[in-house]
Fold:
Amino acid sequence: MPQQPARILVVEDETHLAQGLLFNLQADGFEVEIAGDGETALAALAKNDPRFDAVLLDVMLPGKDGFTVARELREKQNYVPVLMLTARGRPEDVLKGFAAGADDYLPKPFDLSILLARLNSLLRRMAWHSAPSSPEQVIEDQPKFEFAGRCIDFEALELTGPEKHIHLTLMEADFLRYLVRNQGRIIPRKELLEQVWRVREDTDTRAIDNFVVRLRRYIEDEPTNPMYLKTVRGVGYRFLPAGE
Ligand code: CA
Structure:
């Protein structure tokens, strides 16, 4: 069966950059639409016809910036994969982007080959999450993980629990998957940043705490007094699915 080309929304106000991306992505077989500002992007994504498979979202935009666009998208329960384009040397932007709901990031300026690799990896991650699992995947990773009356469904990107039904972003799902794989072990913040977020710069790792605060709202009975996702002071986190 011939595959439909993936459809990408490029959100970038600098015309020469947007046109360059359009040209190169089309040459690589993608269908591309351009939005020059955040409002236009949100309108295009609300319409979503035909469906967008991913968004390349610049941070610096006139009016609503990229963070606001990502946050509003997620608030509207739109979980299209978002690759955020950040300024080089601003790791705090990366963390802000993830907190807003981005799934990956790329610092500007970037090599086109890196952009294509990241974009394809994002599309693969999405396909992996939404496709039924193949036997070899099940051996390494269960599609579902149950603990304490909750169920994380890594394929449907859903978390269900007592009185809760939450759709997860790719990054939230990847983060939870990493916790599940490393359950019981103390995971340093730096490791989470490197392994899950792929942030290698010397970042203020406390910023990861904001992300954890959100996850705790999903999985804890009392998010301020966590039973399952524990803070190990000065080091990182520990996931204890059976509770303390
Ligand atoms: Ca821009």
In short: The chain has two domains: 7-130, 135-239. The chain has a mean pLDDT of 87. Residues 12-14, 58, 60-61 surround calcium ion (CB under 6 Å). The two ends are 50 Å apart (CA to CA).
